[in-house]
Amino acid sequence: MSERNGYSRRAFLAGIGSTTTATLAAGSSGATGIVAGRSERGIEHAGLRGRSRSIGSIEAGTRSERYRQRARPRFDVTLDAVSDLGCDPRGVRPCGRALEAGLGAIESSRVRVRFPPGTYRFESRQRFAGYDAFGLVGTGRTEKGGEGETRFVCPAGYQREWFRIERVGAFVFSGIDWDVRAPNCGPAVVAQVDRSLLIEDIEVLGRGEGDENLLMPQVGSPDGIGVIRRFVARNGGVLGRRRIGVWVGPGNRGTLRFEACRLEEFPNNGIYASASKGAIRVLGGTYRNSDISQLRLSGPGCLVRGTLVAVDTREYDGPRSAGKYRNPRGIWWEAKRRRATGGRIEYTTIAVRRGPSVGAVVVAKNGGAITISRTAIEADATDTPGVFAYEPTGGHYDVPPRPWRVRLHYVHVYGTSSAPAIRINGRPESEVRDSCIANGILVADRPAENTVDRLRNLARDGRRLVGARTGCFDRAIGAGAAPSAPRSRSRPGIQGDRTTPLTPIVVRTVLLVGMVGLGAVLSLGLCIAVGSTLRSLLESLR
Q1: Number of other CB atoms surrounding residue 251 within 10 Å
Q2: Would you say residue 176 lies in a domain?
Q3: How far apart are CA 465 and CA 286, in angstroms?
Q4: What is the pLDDT of residues 59-94, one digit of tens each?
Q5: What pLDDT does residue 7 have?
Q6: Which is it for the CA torsion 91, 93, 94, 97, positive or negative?
Q7: In the structure, what pLDDT confidence band is assigned to residue 125 with cuts at 50, 70 and 90?
Q8: Mean pLDDT of 110-127
Q9: Is residue 365 part of a domain?
Q10: Is 331 helix (H, G, I), strand (E, B) or coil?
């Protein structure tokens, strides 16, 4: 037996924009049709700089809280790690043996261990198994930087499983930082449950080295739920290694919700969940500068909503184990060995500014259908399309089930890349509707049945996007249109993650001008009426 936990928070947000421009039907793959057009940077339009006022919502806060309560089990026994189990909160003596011995004397199968503020050393693998419900919870203050933090510290040179939870019905890991700042430290946390999983308010301190994946959650029951909220790792790993931020394997059959998380600079995907048999829902949060992809998933029930996804390889200043970035995609829509199709990306901002990336949104050869709506996509990196959908041949895996269509509704794709903004190969019934497209659309179809109607591209005039303030920003799109959920009030948003949507400003301005004008008209009418009445009285007196 043994233990684990962490802390964090973040909001983020960005995005505005809108559309009114295109309809496209795409087919199979072969001949090409191309519509040209170019644009300029205009990052402020996609919403990755400045401040923001949010409109809409990712999901109602009550719904998010319902999922959280569903994932939080009832405990029969609560133990204090210091007073009941004898752990050292100063971090001088390792805590593992004391925790194991204390838990061994408890007969209940529904146990929670609370860790007061302090530093707790764990120098070997801590394994918890056979519980109906188990929890590791920090009781420190929620504000970071204070004296009330609860922290688990990993030793130097430790690059293997640190905490392992298995054969547990429900598990909670909450409010404890994971300190991996020791040299050559890169631990892994495995959380395999049957019914419910809650991991929240955890921050990883330091950059993990080696090839072990940081977090591996799994919910075994198809009716189960896992909620991972405000899980933060800003310095994920060492470029060139194989460390994944969050790996979700084929053993996961439940629904996993990632709410307001932040994962950055992992060498091998931020969230890698394309093998999951259960739905993956990414709600809010920020995912930046991981190699291979920031988010990797697909299938029915999968959703990315209100999220900021960004790649700029110039920002990475960590160590390099084996050279450069290989292929940092934004979102990679693929399904591994399972046959799956469907899923959505909406109210999201995706930007690939620098790096050898094949696309901001890439639909793999084994990726099925996808719908992208109210999303801002920037592609500035050389030869990087905004959306690149491969022909669904399956590649090294099975051909995905139909439908294979790629649908873009109210999407703004722009940037300085010379590649087509949208490239779709071999996917019948695909369409781009009511969208602003900067660099054109390239569609390949064997029978050459593609049609492009009413397409109006953004044009570049010097360093200004022609039409940027007229037809293409009259609807709320991008991550700024939907707030990160749940948002912490105690910590400000990160500078550069928010922007101000144009639509609410315009609407408020028009309403204000209208009200002032209406007031003036009413006042003038009243004055005329009073004057007419006085004139009538004077005439009657005469």
Answers
A1: 14
A2: yes
A3: 27
A4: 556 778 888 888 899 999 999 999 999 999 999 999
A5: 26
A6: negative
A7: very high
A8: 98
A9: yes
A10: strand
Query: What pLDDT shows up at residue 37?
Result: 29
**Is omega for the bond preceding 267 within 30 degrees of 0, making it cis?**
no
Q: What is the pTM of this model?
A: 0.78
Please answer whether residues 38 and 438 qualify as being in contact, where contact means their C-beta atoms are separated by less than 8 angstroms: yes
CA 272 – CA 293 distance, rounded (Å): 8
Cα dihedral 149, 154, 155, 161 in deg (nearest 10): 170
CA distance 268 to 240: 8
Q: For 249-298, how does the pLDDT look when each residue is reduced to its tens digit (9 = 90+)?
A: 999 999 999 999 999 999 999 999 999 999 999 999 999 999 999 999 99
**Number of domains forming the structure of the chain:** 1
* CB within 8 Å of 343: residues ≥ 6 apart: 297, 298, 299, 300, 301, 302, 303, 333, 369, 370, 371
Q: Which residues, 6 or more positions from 18, have their beta carbon under 8 angstroms from its beta carbon?
A: 410, 412, 436, 472, 473, 474, 475, 476, 477, 503
Strands 451-453 and 23-25: antiparallel
Cα distance between the two ends of the chain: 107
The residue type at 138: G
Alpha helices, DSSP H, located in 429-496? none
CATH code, domain carrying 396: 2.160.20
- Is 10 within a domain? no
